[in-house]
UniProtKB/TrEMBL annotation:
This is Outer membrane protein TolC. It comes from Flavobacterium fontis. Gene3D superfamilies: Outer membrane efflux proteins (OEP) (1.20.1600.10). GO terms for molecular function: efflux transmembrane transporter activity; porin activity. Belongs to the outer membrane factor (OMF) (TC 1.B.17) family. Pfam families: OEP. Coiled coil: none annotated. It is found in: Cell outer membrane. InterPro entries: OMP_efflux, TolC-like.
Length: 435
């Protein structure tokens, strides 16, 4: 009988044992391939990369192929030296064909600043992609371990039901032989119903958590699966190392630094407006004309054209000076934003680290409580069987054990959340595939 009760005490409930086990790395791989936010960030990064081109910066020439074909039918009347010539429906043709090249060879170095700015914008797109990936990976971590926690809690509640059923059976048997009152049986039934009601709510929350993880992975919400059994915490977390890494790897901070660099390059482009702009042009043209009436009824010419043009602003209503002042203020704002974000990240890291240590300590305490509560329940169970313990005392020991199990799983889950936050902020959160 003792063996049976111990089995019930440590009974492990596995929902859907035939369901496939979804491991964390598999969930991450699926999310990285399918998650909508990540796919959108990938596309935006590709757009920024495509724009980072010498031609988009204005460094390459423009080459145009031009064709003009003009035809007309007119009634023409010409008088020269007293002689009049008239022709109705006279046909005329003017045909121009040519290739032209126009190239800005100097614009105050604006094109080079623009090219460098496009490079920074491409890097910003990659930082945004990295940020989207880290955010979604963090969401997957939290959602996955939330399922692990709920799975553990369902097992704890199932253990409670098994114990309550055993208590109900004992109470009913004792009532039949006259060693217990009907009230004891009713109390046992009420406690069993309470545990079963809790199990229904736990399973409902567990299914909702599964749907949430499926949505994060961008797959069908109704897909069923099972997660791993345990939550493993990292043993040693160095706060100073995470702070140092965050200053160089946090994608949001990197994006703001790149935005500051882009603002500085924008100022260079504005200042380039004070210098002359020089363009060279060349081309090859063919022209043919035909006229039904006139001294020259047909002509054709062809050959090269070449030259250059230069322009320099003298006065533009102080527009360049205004743009310079605005650009300097935008640079100052960008610097302040970087400093603000860095301070915010350091504060978040320190807060998450303290919470991580607290939850980790709680997990250790509650693990010890689970052991003690299990021993207490074992002793209580033995006394309850021989009738030296009241049902209320038995129920109290049962609840203490179940609550200790739930508190332990909660503490592990919370510690894992703060561990994930630390790694997400420092840009060190592990994921298996980037693309």
């Amino acid at each position: 009988m003792r063996t049976i009760y111990l089995f019930l005490l440590f009974f492990i409930f596995q929902p859907g044992i035939a369901q496939p086990i979804l491991r964390l790395e598999e969930a991450l791989d699926i999310a990285l391939q399918n998650n909508f936010d990540i796919v959108l960030a990938k596309n935006n990064a590709s757009i920024a990369s495509t724009r980072n081109d010498a031609g988009n910066a204005g460094m390459l020439p423009n080459i145009m192929l031009n064709v003009n074909d003009i035809n007309s039918i007119t009634n023409t009347n010409q008088i020269q030296g007293g002689t009049e010539r008239t022709l109705n429906n006279a046909k005329n043709l003017v045909l121009n064909f040519g290739v032209a090249l126009d190239w800005t060879v100097f614009d105050g170095l604006r094109m080079f600043a623009r090219k460098e700015q496009l490079k920074k914008l491409e890097a910003q797109g990659k930082a945004a992609l990295q940020s989207a990936i880290l955010t979604r990976v963090g969401d997957i971590y939290v959602a996955y371990y939330d399922l692990v926690q709920r799975q553990q809690q369902i097992k704890a509640v199932d253990t409670a039901i098994a114990l309550s059923k055993a208590r109900y059976t004992v109470a009913e048997n004792r009532y039949k032989i006259g060693k217990a009152s009907k009230l004891e049986v009713l109390n046992a039934q009420v406690d069993l119903n309470t545990d079963e009601s809790l199990q229904v709510r736990q399973k409902e929350q567990y299914k909702a958590a599964k749907i949430n993880l499926n949505v994060l992975m961008a797959r069908a919400p109704e897909l069923d699966f099972q997660v791993e059994e345990s939550v493993i915490l990292e043993e040693n977390i160095d706060l100073a190392a995470h702070i140092s890494l965050a200053k160089s790897q946090n994608p949001q901070l990197i994006a703001l630094m790149l935005a500051k660099n882009s603002a500085e390059l924008q100022l260079k482009q504005i200042r380039a407006g004070r210098y002359p702009t020089i363009r060279v042009n060349t081309g090859y043209n063919i022209q043919r004309t035909e006229a039904s009436l006139g001294f020259i009824t047909q002509s054709q010419s062809q050959g090269f054209t070449y030259g250059f043009s230069a322009s320099m602003p003298i006065f533009q209503g102080n527009q360049i000076s205004r743009d310079e002042r605005i650009a300097k203020l935008e640079i100052e704002n960008a610097k302040l934003t970087v400093a603000q974000q860095e301070l915010l990240i350091v504060g978040q890291l320190q807060s998450a680290y303290e919470s991580y240590l607290a939850q980790k300590s709680l997990a250790t305490i509650e693990a010890n409580n689970v052991t003690l509560a299990a021993q207490n329940l074992d002793i209580t169970l033995a006394k309850f069987k021989i009738g030296t313990l009241t049902p209320i005392e038995y129920r109290t020991a049962q609840q203490q054990y179940i609550e200790a199990k739930i508190r332990h799983s909660n503490a592990l889950f919370q510690a894992k959340i703060f561990e994930t936050t630390l790694k997400e902020l420092s840009g060190t959160l592990r994921f298996w595939k980037f693309y």
